[in-house]
Amino acid sequence: GRAPVPELGLAGKVEIDIDDNDVCEGIACRVRSKSYQVLCHSITSVRGFVNPYSVTGALPLVRDIQDAGFDLQITGFGLSNSYHAENEYCKLSDMEKACKILSLFVSGMNEVLN
Known about the structure:
By secondary structure, this protein is mainly α. Helix content is 39%, strand content 0%.
């Protein structure tokens, strides 16, 4: 596209050429998998509820892991209203719950896999 700025006497042109081999694919976690079920159960056990949702973004390494056949789930325990903000922060109480959730998740996956 063109980007003229006549008051400054400037004109520019922007071209974007995307190589099909460099396109970053999105991912979708498998919500019918055992790991998803165990994760939801672990979160509910600690927090009393689970509220799955999806955000957009580029996670090429995550997609590579999924393409390699791993059942991949992604979760976070920070505050969504400060996610990627300049002053991003979390609460220690949320991180304490995160440790309990992850402990339950590992234990639950151990039961599923053995």
